[in-house]
Amino acid sequence: MTMNPAPREGRLRQALEANGQRFTEQRAAVFRYLSHTDVHPTADDVFLAVRLALPGISLATVYKSLETLVGCGLAVKLSYADAAARYDGRTDPHHHARCIACSRVVDLPGDLSRGEVDALRDRATGFTVTGYRLELSGYCRDCLPAGSPAPARA
Amino acid sequence: MTMNPAPREGRLRQALEANGQRFTEQRAAVFRYLSHTDVHPTADDVFLAVRLALPGISLATVYKSLETLVGCGLAVKLSYADAAARYDGRTDPHHHARCIACSRVVDLPGDLSRGEVDALRDRATGFTVTGYRLELSGYCRDCLPAGSPAPARA
DNA sequence: GTATCTGCAAATTTTTTGCCAGTAG
DNA sequence: CTACTGGCAAAAAATTTGCAGATAC
């Protein structure tokens, strides 16, 4: 049998190597936890959970590992902006596009179609939807790196 | 003439009073700045800008004013979560619904329709879209307050 | 007049960083 | 071996809070 008993580990190793990063026990533990949960943990949540399996790990390492995984496309960071919240005086239905490079935010005119919103609402079983927010990510005019392709989704 | 020369100010006063809040110079200055800009400033950005007109204002007051405006529906806070970033091990196209009350995040199956995404892309003039993120907000099963209506959008 | 708000400074919370020792390749 | 990592502790950044004096109504 050529099947790897831990295919997840192989995928991690492969993705890390593709990005010039090393495979370590800490990164594996963080990755394993993220892969097995659907609670969308904070960095601290990850730390508390991973610490059970790897008592010596530090919170700083968890932060570093998470950023490494995000950099390799193995995880997604659910937060607008880099750190600080941003405020918008417009309260009418409109959305945003955020530049990956300079974090500038620009307004996007218009809204989703009615049907699209209803379809989303239907999929949110057991959830009473009061609103939604949509944000495109990409490169603004000023930050577009010369000749890079546009992948499907962040 | 019954027309107010500063209709914006009137709207602010009205919204504040509707929420049992007082009209203050600081809140007016923050509101005025937010209404006139499209840069989606951070709290600190607002502070730096408003300080020019109101040299005595403090950053803490700006934070408080911003939250007041958000509470009155006069501004929107662009940030996921309460504070901390959350991480997700799933990187395939899917979206999220976040509970306003307990900040829990649940996955939403499926994606937007192809046409819808293309329409968004078209509206983002001068922006190279590499991805997007959609988040519903509302109340999860456990946090639904007894009999509250569902407004159009957060 | 009085409840609410501001400003200040200190406290909290979240995230990042520097540095030395440890480890993957 | 040697460069990349992890752990620790300290720093930085973002946000919140307590309280006394100021202010809206």
Please specify the SSE layout and strand pairing.
Two copies of one chain form a homodimer.
Chain A: H1 7-18, H2 25-36, H3 43-53, H4 59-71, E1 76-78, E2 86-88, E3 95-99, E4 105-108, H5 114-123, E5 127-140
Parallel strand pairs in A: 3-5
Antiparallel strand pairs in A: 3-4
Chain A binds a DNA duplex (25 and 25 nucleotides) through α4.
The CATH superfamily title of the largest domain in chain A? Winged helix-like DNA-binding domain superfamily/Winged helix DNA-binding domain
Question: Oligomeric form of this entry?
Answer: homodimer
Total tally of structural domains of chain A: 2
Q: Would you give the CATH topology of the largest domain in chain A?
A: Arc Repressor Mutant, subunit A
Task: Give the uncertain stretches of chain A in residue-range form.
Answer: 146-154
CATH architecture classification of the largest domain in chain A: Orthogonal Bundle
In round numbers, the mean pLDDT of chain A is: 78
Major protein interface: A-B, 77 and 76 residues
Through-space gap between termini of chain A: 35 Å
Computed Rg of chain A: 19 Å
Explain the overall architecture.
2 copies of one chain form a homodimer. With 154 residues, chain A is an alpha+beta fold. The first copy, chain A, has 2 domains: 1-90, Arc Repressor Mutant, subunit A (Orthogonal Bundle); 92-154, 2-Layer Sandwich (Dna Ligase, domain 1), CATH 3.30.1490. Helices cover 38% and strands 19% of the residues of chain A. The first copy, chain A, contains 5 helices and 5 strands. Chain A has a 3-stranded mixed β-sheet, with no helix packed on it. In chain A, a hairpin with a 5-residue loop joins strand 3 and strand 4 (105-108). Residues 146-154 of chain A have low confidence and may be disordered. Chains A and B meet through helix 2, helix 3, helix 4, strand 1 and strand 2 of A and helix 2, helix 3, helix 4, strand 1 and strand 2 of B. Strand 2 (86-88) of chain A pairs antiparallel with strand 1 of chain B, so a sheet runs across the interface. Chain A binds a DNA duplex (25 and 25 nucleotides) through residues 20-24, 26-27, 42-44, 56-61, 63-65, 83-85.
